[in-house]
Amino acid sequence: MQSQSDYTISREQAKRKSYVKTLRDEIAIWSNVDEESLNNLHINQPKILAYRKKMMGQSGPVEEYADWTHFLLKDFGPRKRCLSLGSGVGRVEKYLAKIGFAEKLETLELCADANESVKLKHAKIEAQVADINFMELQPESYDFILCHCVLHHLINLEHVLSVINLALKKDGLFLLYEYVGDNRFQFSEQRLDFLNKMFPKHKFQCLPLWSINGFEAIRSEEILELVQNQFGDSCKQSVGFGGIYFPFLVCVADGTEIQIEKVIEIDEKAAKEGIFLPCYYMGLYGKSSKKDVIAKHWSDDELDSRLIPPAPLSIRARRSISNSPAGPFLRWAKRMLIQQSK
Q1: Sign of CA dihedral 38, 42, 45, 50
Q2: Alpha carbons 127 and 177: distance in angstroms, whole number
Q3: Concatenated DSSP letters for 70-98?
Q4: Which of 41, 106, 176, 286 is packed most tightly, with the most Cβ within 10 A?
Q5: Which of 61-75, 78-92, 158-172, 308-322 has the highest mean predicted lDDT (pLDDT)?
């Protein structure tokens, strides 16, 4: 078991009000997510999915998650004991079981007990509830471990990556598909200046830091370096992209019609020429013999400020009312008013 001193935050710090509140917010956000709402996200629109497939070296129509998993069964499968961290509604997991890659697939998911898609368990899938920041796994027990858009929601990245590496069997595989862009979507001035120059009809600005809920992108910009430091030269396949289209979709602040074809064209050029670091990354790694990366511990104040940055007075007042005993009634009344106005 890894020493608590090697965690970015300790189990004791996880009892702090800021962590408990953020954990509660994270569960509330993702418990209300379903496949339809995920499919309707800007980043999942058909033209971007087709572009993503192209960057992964595939042609033809988009089919479920084949763009970044198509090679698994052919080149590395099937795999007997598999694990998925942060499985969400279980979309990728059910796909891997359906195509015959995963003979048995376990999942660790913060919202598993509140997520209907995980409750309706596939015969090959076993879902468990866990805070992955503090997970422990049996060494050399898994043939395959998946992280699909979960690492950028975690604080104890060094601990998690170390546990993943230790839990892989000798010929085990670690596949990640992640957002690896700027922390809390606070994109650099250079990236914003580039967007403003390339798309002068739009106005680009970052979302207010206090408006980013839950653990979203809490240490995202550190993921690539930490993965490379932990898994070294064991990378078997990788690709990065999205350094333009993702901040474009997040930061566009007006209603001007979006020319997604132009955005994708510029994104592909930026990815190939290394103009900006990618915002999305897919990498497949083997078990590594490299030493663990030691975490830099956060103080209590640093944890609090990162999780709950200062907000305008009006927002703080609204949050205070929402968290008061009257909060549930006020939210119910608001829903009733909305329904009556329709």
Answers
A1: negative
A2: 20
A3: HHHHHHH--EEEEEEES-TT-HHHHHHHH
A4: 176
A5: 158-172
CA dist., res. 247 & res. 195, Å (int): 8
pLDDT (0 to 100) of residue 60: 61
pTM over 0.90: no
Listing DSSP states for 142-155 in one string gives: EEEEEEES-GGG-S
Residue ranges of domains in the chain, CATH in brackets: 4-310 (3.40.50.150), 313-342 (no CATH)
Joined together, the tokens standing for residue 153 give 């929601």
Q: How far is CA 178 from CA 147, 154, 284, in A?
A: 8, 12, 12
Q: Give the C-alpha distances (Å, rounded to integers) separating 38 from 35, 65, 105, 124.
A: 5, 13, 22, 23
- Average pLDDT (121-149) is 92
Q: Is 238 exposed, middle or buried (0-12, 13-18, 19+ CB in 10 A)?
A: middle
At 98-110, the pLDDT tens digits run 889 999 999 999 8
Q: CA-to-CA distance for 174 and 151, rounded, in angstroms?
A: 13
